[in-house]
Amino acid sequence: DKTVKRAISLEEVKRIRGIELQADPSLDFARDMFMFSFYTRGMSFVDMAFLKKKDLQNGMLSYRRKKTGQQLSVKWEKEMQEIVEKYDTGNSPYLLAVIKQPGKEERRQYLNMAHLVNRKLKALGKSLGILVPLTMYVARHSWASIAKSKNIPLSVISDGMGHDSEATTQIYLASLDTTAIDKANKRILKSL
């Protein structure tokens, strides 16, 4: 089956980042988790939920992908730091405020938060007039699609996302952005 388009444009990502949401803390948190994923090259929500403070050392965030077991490192940027500082995790070993009670049914806490965040993101997307139903997965797809549109080599996108092979990345990107194909078709049709 053909993959459903799950990417949004850079302009839409900018709108999500820029909207004022402090009046609704859960919507604000959902947006911040979306942006954190985008900032970290489309990190999956499960990997974000289980990031530990000790995973951040010497300006690098290192973690092992739950899905593939692959070890990834991301250069720590100020945008990431701003989100971490916004949410106090106190004595928790976790970097982000997803699992609020360490050691107590952590998987259930992660799943409940994932449902809440995705529900809030869909509402946010609708309020902004974004046609793609907004979820955490959209952040990952959008990072890849935007990287492709900026002519970043497939091998770099693949490595950045932690894919096992470039073939996986090609499948991932195949349905995301037909803009270049549409432009090529327009040029061909104009030449008739």
Write structural notes for this entry.
With 192 residues, the protein is mainly alpha-helical. It has helices at 10-18, 25-39, 45-49, 78-86, 106-127, 136-149, 154-161, 166-174, 179-190; strands spanning 56-57, 60-64, 71-75. A hairpin with a 2-residue loop joins strand 1 and strand 2 (60-64). Helix 2 (25-39) runs parallel beside helix 6 (136-149). The protein is globular. The model has no long low-confidence stretch (mean pLDDT 88).
What is the structure about, briefly put?
This protein is mainly alpha-helical and 192 residues long. The protein is 54% helix and 6% strand.
Give keywords.
192 residues, mainly alpha, three-stranded antiparallel sheet, 9 helices, 54% helix
